[in-house]
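Async update (no meeting this week)

Hi team, since we skipped the sync, here's where things stand on the single-chain job. The sequence we agreed to prioritize is pasted below, unchanged from the tracker. I ran it this morning and attached the output directly underneath so nobody has to dig for it. Comments welcome in thread, and please keep replies under the output.
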Amino acid sequence: MDKLVVFFLFAIITNVLCMSVRNKRQSNDDDDVLDDRYGWELTTRPPRQFPGQGFFPGLFPGQGQFPGQQQRLTTTRAPNNLGTTTMSPAIQQCIRSCPVTAEYNPVCGTDNITYNNPGRLTCAQACGINVSVLRSLPCPTATQAPTS
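Output:
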């Protein structure tokens, strides 16, 4: 019986000491409040890095002077038999200056253009192009009819 009591006493003391060491290792102080360590109690949000830069290009003078605003246009046009339509340089510049993520999740627009992600398509809509998502895959490419 004495051995069992000593074993339980040893287990309890070890657990208490190890938890104390673990808590000290994971935080700089003896406070066990996770909210404070992870910043969940922050009441104010830090200001934007580039204030005054809205979603729509041309809203403020000097657009394109901040890093990341000059993203290249990454849409590809699938061949079609309806004739060719090109975007004006102003619309191309508008699409290039939209802040979007670099993810590759291609969507096919109703204008038969493959956009690299839904954010690019939304950007095209914001720039005045009348387009919506046709399907969540790249646009199909036209195949040549076999010659006999």
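Quick observations from my side:
The longest strand covers residues 107-109.
The two ends are 97 Å apart (CA to CA).
Reply here if anything looks off.
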